[in-house]
Each structure stands twice: as structure tokens, then as C-alpha cells.
Design a protein that fits this description.
By secondary structure, the chain is of the alpha/beta class. It has two domains: about 190 residues, Periplasmic binding protein-like II (D-Maltodextrin-Binding Protein, domain 2, 3-Layer(aba) Sandwich); about 190 residues, 3-Layer(aba) Sandwich (D-Maltodextrin-Binding Protein, domain 2), CATH 3.40.190.10. Helices cover about 45% and strands about 15% of the residues. The protein contains 19 helices and twelve strands. Strands 1, 2, 3, 6, 11 and 12 form a six-stranded mixed sheet that branches. Strands 8-9-7-10 form a four-stranded mixed sheet. The longest helix has 18 residues. The N terminus is likely disordered. InterPro entries: Bact_solute-bd_prot1, SBP. Its main location: periplasm. This is Glycerol-3-phosphate ABC transporter substrate-binding protein. Belongs to the bacterial solute-binding protein 1 family.
């Protein structure tokens, strides 16, 4: 018996040396906003590792926001701390590209062949391009929508089945909801944190951040004036208090706010937080200019950072998987983001029937035709520029400055931060 055991043992050793070693590649992945993406990332990575047992995914500490995320990556660039893959806000891809931190995915896309067959149309690929360079693959894309408390709308004399279509209607109904009393507010507009929701108003009026050659500020033109005027009217006429972002979200979920305007990416969390406290509805966000108005595309892209050839091959597999139809089929129902992969959106194997069964998700999907890229300011001061805009919006909301004065101050300061031509 011992002799037979020795034979099997020897055979096993011989076989082990005869077969090629199945080396495991470990990829370190960084991502932002764990409140939105932790469960999504865990699900996608688990499925990916099941299908690719030779690749292990481990996560670096996530960043709380897109702004913190880009600053973390730029600090770690070129050091041992830098992850192999990161997920970066679409408006910060330009900063990575200008510093030559990200791997150019263009050759990998070209080698792949027909990416459209896998749901990556040219339109979707362009979301993560900078000056024609493929810096990443769009992973989660969003647009701003209207969330509303159907019970409060009805109590204030509105029709929950026909929500406001214009800002005038929103502000008027918000004022009526505020007048209901009992600690109820009319509107929460998520202006804090970055320039995204301001750009929703600016782009919605047909405006733009800078002029065509990016030498001068353009957001202080007539379109920008209309945008900040709407913010002031929300405060003075629509019953919008000075909320922090978390406080506004909590008040809305508690049934104390009529309308909330923010990313469709917050939808799943909002549904969970609202529960059965009131009837939650969603609708399109109004455009100041219904004909020429557009909406910014929020979200992030998966970016490869590692310069190691073997790791790049594994990272490309993960990037395609995460941004592909399976990844999109996890991101959309897991967050509320709109699908960044056309195959996922159309195929019954993924999200084909999802929107019919989940009407709250339809508002974001219906706005996809008017989505344009989230503007990325040139130069090294992108984060400071964003904060300057936010600081001046704060002055409008707390009524310490007139809209035109705050807009003029923001424009003057931002112009001084632009790269010299």
C-alpha cells in the first residue's frame, strides 16, 4: 500500500513539473464614492475572477469623491502606491492625460477589432477620450434628474402624474410645498461639491464654460446669468434652504422636501432611504432652453495606470469586463446610472426588460439624447476652478451676494487660473 502511495506521490510531483505553472496576476484597483460603488465593485470583481481565475483583484482604499480620487492618483503617480487601475471622474481624465499618467488605450482598442459588437459604439468610446486619445473606457454614466415627493406635490395642489416641465413651474410648486408648513421645504438642488449641477443649468440654457479656444470664461454670459438666476429663485421663491449635500438627501428621504435635483446615480440609495415613507417619483430635469439645452454626462471611466506589460494585459481584460455589458448590467440596477454600453441597454440578456419593470429609472434613460461631456477645465488648476465656482454658488444660496456679482467674481477668479495662451 505504501509502495502504491509513493508511486502516486511521485506521479503527482512529475505532473506538477510537466505542466506549465498557472501564475496569478494581482491587480490593485482604486475607485471613488464607495456609497455608490462598493457593492457594484464587489459583484463585478467576483464575477470577473470566477471567469479569470489567473487574475486576482484587490482594492485600494476608495476615495470619498471624484475630486479626492484624482488628487490621490496624482500624488501616487510613479510611486509604489499607485494602483494598477483606477476609476476617475469623466471631467478629470484631462488632468491625467496632461500629466501622461494614464496608459493610452487606443492601440488596445484597435487590436480588439470591432468594439461596437460588444456595445462600445464610437459615441460611448468618445466619452472617455481626451483630444482623440482613448484615456479610459466609460464605466458609469449619469445625468441629473428630478426626484419628487408625490404626496407633497399632491398636497400642494400639483398633479403627481404630470410633474413640472419648466423651472417656473418647479419654483412655483416648490413655494406652495414650503407653504404647507410643518418643517417642509420646497426644493433641494445639489449645487455643492463640484460644478456638475451648475453646468446642468448652464448647458441647459445653451451655454458653455469657456470660449472655443479656451482662453476666456464663457459661463458669465447670458446663459450663465439665467442659470444663477434660477438658483436664486429656488431660494427666494421655491423654498430651498441652505443644505449640505448629506442634509438635503436626508431631508428628502425623510419626506421633508418636495423636489430634489441630483444625479440619477443616487437613485438606488434614494429608493432604499425613502422606503415606504412616501410615494417617490422621478422625471426629467427642466432645460432653461428646451431647444438648445443639453445636460452634462456625469460618472467615471476605468483607467489603466500600470506600465507593467503583463499587468496591462490583465488590466485590459478587467477594463473591458467592467465597462462591458455585464458590468453595465450590475451598475444600472445597483446605482441608477444610465447604461454606458449599448449591448447591455438593448439585450434581454442584460437590461432589455429592466426599464419596463422599473419606471423610476426611465427619467435618466430618456435624457440620453441630450447628454454632452462633463466639461474638463484645462491646466493644473482644475480642482481649484471647480471649488471657486462652488464657493460663489454658496454665496447665492446663503444670499450673501447677488447672482450677477457672484457670477462675475467666479469668472474673474477662474480666468486668472486658466493656462496662459
Amino acid at each position: 500500500m505504501k509502495h502504491i502511495s509513493r508511486i502516486f506521490a511521485a506521479a503527482a510531483v512529475s505532473l506538477a513539473f510537466a505542466l506549465p505553472a498557472n501564475a496569478e496576476t494581482t491587480l490593485t484597483v482604486h475607485y471613488p464614492m464607495p456609497g455608490f460603488f462598493k457593492n457594484v465593485m464587489d459583484t463585478i470583481s467576483k464575477k470577473f475572477m470566477e471567469e479569470n481565475p489567473d487574475i486576482k483583484i484587490q482594492f485600494a482604499s476608495p476615495s470619498a469623491t471624484y475630486e479626492e480620487g484624482i488628487q490621490t492618483i496624482l500624488r501616487q503617480a510613479g510611486t509604489d502606491e499607485m494602483p494598477d487601475i483606477t476609476f476617475i471622474g469623466l471631467n478629470r481624465l484631462r488632468m491625467l492625460n496632461e500629466r501622461d499618467v494614464a496608459v493610452d488605450l487606443g492601440p488596445l482598442v484597435k487590436k480588439e477589432g470591432n468594439m461596437a459588437e460588444r456595445g462600445f459604439s464610437d459615441t460611448i468610446l468618445k466619452l472617455a477620450q481626451v483630444n482623440g486619445k482613448q484615456v479610459g473606457l466609460a464605466f458609469a454614466t449619469s445625468n441629473p434628474i428630478m426626484y419628487y415627493n408625490a404626496d407633497l406635490v399632491k398636497a400642494a395642489g400639483g398633479d403627481p402624474d404630470n410633474p413640472p416641465k419648466t423651472w417656473d413651474e418647479v419654483i412655483a410648486l416648490g413655494g406652495k410645498i414650503k407653504a404647507l408648513g410643518n418643517g417642509v421645504d420646497g426644493i433641494d438642488f445639489r449645487w455643492q461639491g463640484d460644478d456638475w449641477m451648475f453646468s446642468a443649468l448652464l448647458f441647459g440654457a445653451g451655454g458653455k464654460m469657456l470660449n472655443d479656444d479656451e482662453s476666456k470664461v464663457a459661463f458669465n454670459g447670458p446663459e450663465g446669468e439665467k442659470a444663477v438666476e434660477v438658483i436664486e429663485r429656488m431660494v427666494k421663491e421655491g423654498g430651498m434652504p441652505v443644505f449640505t449635500k448629506p442634509a438635503g438627501e436626508q431631508a428628502f428621504a425623510a419626506g421633508k422636501v418636495g423636489f430634489e435635483f441630483q444625479t440619477t446615480g443616487a437613485l438606488v440609495n434614494t429608493i432604499k432611504n425613502v422606503g415606504d415613507k412616501f410615494t417617490l417619483r422621478t422625471a426629467k430635469i427642466p432645460l432653461i432652453d428646451p431647444v438648445n439645452g443639453r445636460l452634462p454626462t456625469g460618472g467615471n471611466a476605468v483607467v489603466i495606470l500600470t506600465k507593467d506589460t503583463a499587468k496591462q494585459e490583465a488590466a485590459w481584460k478587467f477594463a473591458k469586463f467592467a465597462a462591458g455589458p455585464y458590468g453595465a448590467s450590475v451598475v444600472v440596477p445597483g446605482t441608477g446610472y444610465v447604461p454606458n454600453n449599448e449591448l447591455a441597454a438593448k439585450s434581454p440578456d442584460y437590461l432589455g426588460d429592466f426599464y419596463k419593470k422599473n419606471p423610476l429609472f426611465q427619467a435618466g434613460l430618456s435624457q440620453m439624447p441630450v447628454m454632452v461631456p462633463w466639461y474638463a477645465f484645462p491646466g493644473t488648476n482644475g480642482v481649484k476652478v471647480t471649488q471657486t465656482i462652488v464657493d460663489n454658488l454658496s454665496r447665492i444660496v446663503d444670499q450673501s451676494a447677488a447672482p450677477k456679482d457672484a457670477l462675475a467674481d467666479a469668472a474673474s477668479d477662474v480666468e486668472g487660473m486658466l493656462p496662459s495662451q
